[in-house]
Design brief:
single chain, 108 residues, alpha/beta, Rossmann fold, 4-stranded parallel β-sheet, 4 strands
């Protein structure tokens, strides 16, 4: 059984999501980015991992539709796999000033 320890950065990420429309977590593989995201998630979060082939294809085929959501925070894991999502996210937050719309996770 693997023990999951609370990440001290989780508090800072929660605070950032209450102040900014987009928050990004970047780091090397296996450094705990997904663990942190899961620790702050609640019912208002949508989690989309681009490691899943069907979600990767959906993001590539229609980036505009992929980022659409009307409430809560959308977490997009491995966003670096579809760079076109960045401009669609910019357009989305330019037209909606709600804080905490996107939590983007990328590996370097």
């Amino acid at each position: 059984m693997e023990i999951e320890y609370p990440r001290w950065q989780a508090y800072n990420i929660k605070q950032a999501l209450q102040q900014s429309r987009i928050v990004a977590i970047s780091g090397s593989r296996q450094s705990g980015k997904t663990t942190i995201a899961r620790q702050i998630m609640n019912d208002n979060f949508i989690f989309r991992s681009l490691d899943r082939v069907e979600l990767l294809q959906a993001a590539k085929n229609d980036p505009h539709e992929f980022v659409q959501h009307s409430e809560g925070t959308m977490i997009i894991d491995e966003i670096q796999k579809v760079p076109e999502l960045f401009s669609e996210i910019k357009l989305a937050v330019d037209s909606d000033n709600r804080v905490g719309q996107f939590l983007l996770k990328q590996s370097q």
